[in-house]
Structures are given as C-alpha cells and as structure tokens.
Amino acid sequence: MLSLIFSFLFLFPCAVYSRDRWTEAQATTWFQSQTYIMGSQYITSDAGNQLEMFQNDTWNPTLIDQELGLAESLGMTTMRIFLHDLAYLQDPAGFKSRVNALLTICAKHGIKPLLTIFDSCWNAYPKAGKQPEPRTGVMLSAWVQSPGVIALLDQTQWPRLQTYVTDVVGTFANDARVLGWDLWNEPDNSFNSTQVAALVQLLPQVFDWARSVNPTQPLTSGPFGTDYLNGIGGQVTQIQMNNSDVLSFHNYDPANTFETHIKALQKWNRPIICTEYMARTRGSDFITVLPLGKQYNIGMINWGFVNGKTQNNYPWDSWQNPYTTYQPYLWFHEVFRNDGTPYLIEEAQVIKRLNGCPKGFKSTAQSLKGLTCYNAYSAPLNFTDAQAACNKNYANMAIIDSAAQNTELLSYLTSSFSSCNSFYIGLYPDAYGDWLWPMAGWTYDSSSYVNWKSGYPINSTGSTCVVINKDGTWSNQACDSPQCYLCSY
C-alpha cells in the first residue's frame, strides 16, 4: 500500500501552499549549507540536444553513470542539466521517471544538479521524435529552444507549459538530491520585440508557477547580457533579479572583467552562482577565472563537459564559418575528450585542487612547485605501474619540496595507511647522478630539501626509485618491487 501511495504522489504531486521569494537571509542560509558549488553544464556525449538526452529511445543511463564518474573524479559537486517541455509532453510519467533515475545517478557520484526548465538559445522550432544529426564543424547545431517560438507566442499553449513546470518542480520540490531550479536560460537571447513582449508576460508566471508548488530548493534565472552592471537592468533582467532566490549570471570574459561582474552583482546582497563561463580563446579559463570565483565564494559552473554531439569544442562563430577543413587551435569549451581523458591535464588539476583535493590530502605547507594535493594508494605496484596509475588520476608521482610538507605527509600516510611500510615518490636520478622530480626536470642540488635515511642514497644502478618510509626518511631501491605509492598535483 505504501508503494502505491508513493507512486500516486510521484505521478500527481500536490503542493500545500505557494511560497514567497526567499529573503536575503534565507538565501544566504541555504548557500552556506551547501558544499562548495562547482561543476559543468552536462549533456550526454551521445546527445545533440535536450530531447535526445531525455526521450526514452535515446535515454542512456549507463553513459550518464560513466560520465558523471569523471565529474566525481574532479570533485565536482553539481551539474547544470537542461530539461525540455516536449520531452515531458510526449511522456510525462516516463520523463519524470528518467529525471528521477538521473538524480539517483547524480547522488551516487556526490552531485546535486541544477535543473534548467526553459531555454531561449539556438534552434527555435523544436520537434519531439528523432533528432537531427549535428552539422559538421558547428557547435550546438542540434540544440533547441524550450519552449519553441510557436509555443511562446501562442498563449493557448501556456497552460501546458504551466503543467510542465508545476508537475516537474512539484514532483521533486522536496528532493534533497536537487540543488535548485534554473527556470529560464538567457530568456531574451536573440529574441525580437514580439518575442520579448510575450516573454515579459510569461516569465513572471513561470516563477509564480514554480513557487506555487513550494520547492525547498532555490529558483534562479541568469540574465542574457550585462545590463545588470548599472544596478538596475532592463525589463527582462529586472524580472529575473526581482524573482530569483539566488542570483545567477553568465560571463565568458577574462578574469578582470569577470571580477567586475561579481562586484556589481554583490550589490543585491544575495548568493551568486555563475552558471556559464569558460571560453578559452576569449581568455575565460579554469586557470585564471575559476580561482577568482572560489575567492569570492560564488558557485562556478562552466559550459561544456564531455566532447560529443554538441561539439562545444568549436567556438560561437562556427555557426557562420563551420570548421570543416581545419580544427580550432584551442578548444572553446569542454573539459574531457570523448575518450574520458582531460583536454588539458593542468585544468583538471586546478579543478581538483580548488575542490579540496577529492579523496586525498590537502597540504597547507608552502610548496615551491605549487603542489598542494596528495593521494596515497595502498595497493602495491611497481614504479612504472604506479606512475601510470597517478597519471590516470591527473597526477604524477609525489614531489616533496620542504620539511614541513614531509612532516604533513608523514602524518597523513601513517594515520590512513597503516598497512604500508613505504610509498614510492617521484625522485629519480639522471645519467649524471643528480636527483630529479618527475615530468619537470627540477634538479635537487645540495641546498634543496631531501630527507635521506642514514646511509642513503646507495650508489647502485639497480636502485633508481625512491620511497618515503614510515619514519619520514627516504631511501632508494629497485623499481620492480611492488610498493604503496604517493601521487601529487
């Protein structure tokens, strides 16, 4: 009987009352209760648009599980995922079941998604069913608006949009697996005056519909453009800023401009989430912009995750000039290649460091090489296999460049890995007998930090690998001996 009741509530959610917009204090309390919000816009790499991801025939939970495992490996805590009204209209119960399955997979990987309800970008005439193949060399060529322009301008279709909003948000209104609701992505992006006039009527209703089912998660909608910089904003921006529980914005500019936008938005005294950034050829990247977002304690969600049918590696101008004869010298968006390897390993390392060194140890000791994250592994491997295992996790064999760091690491290793007597680290000798660190060529001369055990290093051609022992000293030995090992990045 209980399962029947749950199934009924899942299919026909009912709200007790409509809530108001959160106060500044309520929004701040919510934000402070969250793990630091960092992630990507996510769509399965085998889908060209929202419909292809969520329609039953092309729904691929196995791939979602695999790709969100990549997000977990970086310590990401959220994914911004776009839904679609036509996928719901086609099969309401099935659509909600798939969203529920998505949330289960997300929770498995420590991710609370920000679910996006509507979107005004790219193709204006969406159709359910089989979706078109992407155009060669063009980003987001199959992406579709939701609602399409026909439904936007036809008020007789607005009741079905209301049902979509209230049913989907209502079904998951009390679900702790959901981070929040991004009700409309860039609502007036490329709209003409007729479309904007309809939007100005519809957008406030969308917020009202969502609030009517009393969601425990925040509502937001990020402006298209920069008119909020004047502290007021245009008509559509005002609707967004005056209805959002937490503020969101998009910015694809370098760090100095990005910081200007943060400071402008702080005047509203609400938590801030940047729900789109990272366009490498524009100077918006993980290396310079992401640390700034962390410094200001704003949520950070970049555009693009795994390269696939959306082809987000191509820039915006690919719509006018498709990349059919040559590839861009630098990818525009995306974190991972289709084979699951990072596009740039140094970006993956920055993301992991800013996410607190997931499943590892964060050193507070000053590092000459900027390395602060360490992961030890207790499954013994020879040195070559250990180095490969570190590389698979976007790291190298550990570099230790100060006494303070060595002391911190000793505490980490002895408290968490009691079964290991020693751990491979990255120090190795070159042909001249100088000891070097991996993948860098930094030579340690007599003034550099070392902590050799008494009698070491031994002068033996077969003892070219180094371990840190349980007492914190270092010794060199043969590289084919299976040992626990320590990685750093």
From TrEMBL:
Coiled-coil region(s): none
PROSITE patterns recorded: C_TYPE_LECTIN_1 (PS00615), C_TYPE_LECTIN_2 (PS50041)
SUPFAM superfamilies referenced in this protein's UniProt entry, alphabetically: (Trans)glycosidases, C-type lectin-like
Protein's UniProt keywords contain Disulfide bond: yes
Keyword Glycosyltransferase: no
C-type lectin domain span: 369-488
Signal peptide stretch: 1-18
Keyword tags: Disulfide bond, Signal
Annotated InterPro entries: C-type_lectin-like (IPR001304), C-type_lectin-like/link_sf (IPR016186), C-type_lectin_CS (IPR018378), CTDL_fold (IPR016187), GH (IPR017853)
UniProt name for this protein: C-type lectin domain-containing protein
Highest classification ranks of the organism: Eukaryota, Metazoa, Ecdysozoa, Nematoda, Chromadorea
